[in-house]
Amino acid sequence: MRLFHAAARTHARFDDEHVIAYAGLEPVMRLAERIDLGGLVDEHVAIADRCGVNAAAKISSIVAGMAAGADSIADLDALRHGGMDTLFDGIRAPSTLGVFLRCLRWGNVRQIEKVSREVLGRLAAHTPLLPAAGTVAFLDVDSMQKRTYGYAKQGSGFGHTKIGGKSVLVRGLNVLASVLSTPLAAPVITGTRLRGGKANSARGAESFVAESITAAWAAGATGILLLRADSAFYSAGVIGACRRAGAYFSVTAKMDPKIKAAIAAIDQDAWTTITYPKAVFDEQAGRWVSDAEIAEVSYTAFASKNKQAVTARLIVRRVKRLNPAAVIGQDELFSTYRYHAIFTDSPFHLVQAEQQHRDHAIVEQVFADLNDGPLAHLPSGDFAANAAWVTCAAITHNLLRATGCLAGGVHAKARGATLRRRLVAVPARLARHGRGHITVHLPQHWRWRQAWMNVFDAVHDPPPAEAV
Length: 468
Fold this sequence. Notes:
With about 475 residues, the chain is of the alpha+beta class. The protein contains 14 helices and 15 strands.
């Protein structure tokens, strides 16, 4: 591709008041109005500070800015350009939104978290957000140490995170999140909670898990609901919260002496070879040849805790340790293994239950999506402001995910950055005609025209049928 006009004959002016850069915000925010985002904020969020007036308009502006790609308070000014004030009402300046975020208290953050859970339930009712959730769904809980810079971030501290597969100390704030998915649906966020940087992963996890399970039920996960988590959440509190709420659990067990003794007691004939990454199928033997095997045994955890003992399945995966001296002809006398134990009451058979637990890594996809979008930064020095920002990012993620489901095809599982690029960041010219009518003129030959129109048609009259 090359330029057609010479540089001396090319000119630029920012003078067109009828052009907008984010035409996709119209159907996205129309969907937000369909589920009454503003009404939910008015109902649940009560801010005592005078800077907290018109919370519905301000939170809607933050969500719209995030949907357009804003990852800082200053970037929210992208909403104020061209004909945006012709298409939208109540757009707030970044300075106003920054003051609003800083006036929030922790109680207000918890209120916004409730709004986020309500929004997810309504999105699931209005769009095909979670197909097959009534049969089986997975709730994944994990935490992320979000790096911050400088010492002005309230609550920041050094916590462990993995970079390049290695655990390192990173100064920042800790984000606890739960995501809900099905075998047919991409993950949506059921809950978020910001903690201080020094917080361990399991702090507050019991109540958080209970809230997340309730949000999952409200979003339509009325069938088998399986909570998956890593060893940081291997505790009597978390597992007890699952059992009280009627959900199954699948949690990585800590390799303490009792777990090791249970593994050592497994009979050698009980191990089953499984299909594992880079495994090879031997047609002559009719089985998979790999170093990965699994077995299970009954196990009682937390027996030392009063009335908190839980008896369930201990599923163990073992992978043979490679002998680095084998290449020079030094064979090993006996095989040694690395063990990975899962404590679960999953109703699925052994191979299926173990494979499903490995899919817990889907939560990392959501963290990557958020880091590539509104959580590229934690924009304020105030802790409550950052906590509210994280919750607004969760609302935006779910709103974009619902938009992708309405668009159909690959967009139902596309990353947030892809949805913003294809469906939101579409330039358009606004034209008024008739009495109160407006037409959004979009680029001809837009590659994703049909997907965009699918969303537009779905959120305009007549209203779409509720998802079953």
